Amino acid sequence: MAALGSNSTSEKSGTASEAQSGPDNDFWAGQGPVVLRDPAIKLLSPVSGLEPLSWAEDHRLAASSTNSVSIMELVCDIHGLSKNLVLHRSHIPVPDSACDLKVT
């Protein structure tokens, strides 16, 4: 009887752990602690436009502002063991004069 009681307790704890690890749980909760990355990427001027931030499939982030476009590219170092993110930033200034495109 005592063994039966201990089995039912372990079965209850087993079902409780299964319920906690079910598909309804948050995906990001199982990924480990959130690591704060400092310093933040600073832009030279505030973002503007209908969609000022755009993420591309080739791991690039474009941020458009009033006088430039900044492109940040995530660079993976397969030989390094560091957990740091490496971002290469390109800055493309917007020309002062408007450009006209003639289509013939």
Notable characteristics:
elongated; 4 strands; 104 residues; 4-stranded antiparallel beta sheet; disordered N terminus; alpha+beta; single chain
Strand content: 15-25%
Largest sheet: 4 strands, antiparallel
Shape: elongated
Low-confidence stretches: 1-19
- Please give the share of residues in helix: 10-25%
Quote the distance from N terminus to C terminus.
92 Å
C-alpha-based Rg, rounded: 26 Å
* Count of DSSP H/I helices: 1
Query: How confident overall, as mean pLDDT?
Result: 72
Instruction: Provide the structure class.
Output: alpha+beta
Question: Which H/E pattern describes the elements?
Answer: HEEEE
Q: Write down how many β-strands occur, each being a DSSP E stretch of 2 or more residues.
A: 4
Side by side, the strands of the main sheet go 1-2-3-4
Structure description:
The chain is α+β, with helices and mostly antiparallel strands and 104 residues long. The chain has a domain at 37-96. The chain is 18% helix and 23% strand. The protein has 1 helix and 4 strands, in the order αββββ. It has one helix at 2-20, and strands at residues 53-55, 60-64, 68-75, 86-93. Strands 1-2-3-4 form a 4-stranded antiparallel β-sheet, with no helix packed on it. A hairpin with a 3-residue loop joins β2 and β3. The chain is elongated and about 55 Å long. The model is unreliable at 1-19 (pLDDT under 50). Residues 1-30 are annotated as: Disordered.
